[in-house]
Write a structure and sequence with these properties.
InterPro entries: EOBI/EOBII-like_plant, Homeodomain-like_sf, Myb_dom, SANT/Myb. Keywords: DNA-binding, Nucleus, Repeat, Transcription, Transcription regulation. With 227 residues, the chain is an all-alpha fold. The protein binds a DNA duplex (21 and 21 nucleotides) through helix 2, helix 3, helix 5, helix 6 and helix 7.
DNA sequence: AAAGGATACAACCGCTCCGCG
DNA sequence: CCGCGGAGCGGTTGTATCCTT
């Protein structure tokens, strides 16, 4: 192994701190540059992914709320697998997170269906294993699930979200309103939202501060010191 | 208490898009 | 107009953790 071999796999805390430092310095756009100057033997891609999915301040961690789940399902049924787009409507959630949630959800639902239907002479070729599962998802198009399973509150999440939903309904109102509004330009992807999301990147001025991780704080302290 | 299965999460890969020279 | 490089997106895979038997 040579020194300049590109590193892969899990990030260490040290790497995280380093990345946060350099993103703080140079902003969150020039990933290749950051990858080089930071001394991390990572690709720019890898750096960006780590930042967006893990280090970005303001990320909500932990389980999705029923409202968020409902929103994901709703948006997915409208827009298909446009995860980044969906993520923009869910402040603090990443496309990766949503994608993962969706996959899990789909698998759960298809398993439930299999169980409830469980035709003995079933000629259902599609749902044999997770791999096939995902392939059929792809092949049949994103809407397929909702075409069939659609509006009926068969999933426990949906039922739950109705119960709990009322409380935070107001907080979600804006988002639903926005969705309704953006429905029209949904067809023209060129009109992607410019800026209402948490992810809005302010060009060079990336003045986001990490909140939760001690090491990240110390990193910024270190930065101050370096200045 | 151990084993096996299910689930959630993190990361990589390949493709596409976009801006720039 | 074309080619190139960087950034972003969606799909897929690997692994750690949790749950059930």
């Amino acid at each position: 192994m040579t020194q300049d071999e590109v590193r892969k796999g899990p990030w260490t805390e040290q790497e995280d701190v380093q990345l946060v430092c350099f993103v703080g310095l140079f902003g969150d756009r020039r990933w290749d540059f950051i990858a080089k100057v930071s001394g991390l033997n990572r690709t720019g891609k890898s750096c960006r992914l780590r930042w967006v999915n893990y280090l970005h301040p303001g990320l909500k961690r932990g389980k999705m709320t029923p409202q968020e789940e409902k929103l994901v399902l709703e948006l997915q049924s409208r827009w298909g697998n446009r995860w980044s787009r969906i993520a923009k409507k869910l402040p603090g959630r990443t496309d990766n997170e949503i994608k993962n949630y969706w996959r899990t959800h789909i698998r759960k639902v298809s398993q439930e269906k299999k169980r409830t239907v469980s035709l003995p002479s079933s000629s259902s070729p599609a749902l044999k294993d997770p791999k096939v599962d995902s392939i059929t998802m792809k092949a049949s198009g994103a809407e397929s699930f909702y075409d069939t399973g659609g509006p009926e509150p068969s999933s426990s999440t949906e039922i739950k979200s109705r119960e709990v939903g009322k409380k935070t309904e107001h907080a979600m109102d804006d988002i639903w309103g926005e969705i309704a509004l953006s429905e029209e330009d949904a067809i023209t992807p060129a009109n992607e939202y410019c800026g209402e999301s948490l992810w809005e990147t302010q060009g060079e001025e990336c003045k986001m501060l990490p909140r939760s991780t001690d090491s990240l704080f110390s990193c910024y302290a270190e930065l101050e010191y370096l200045r």
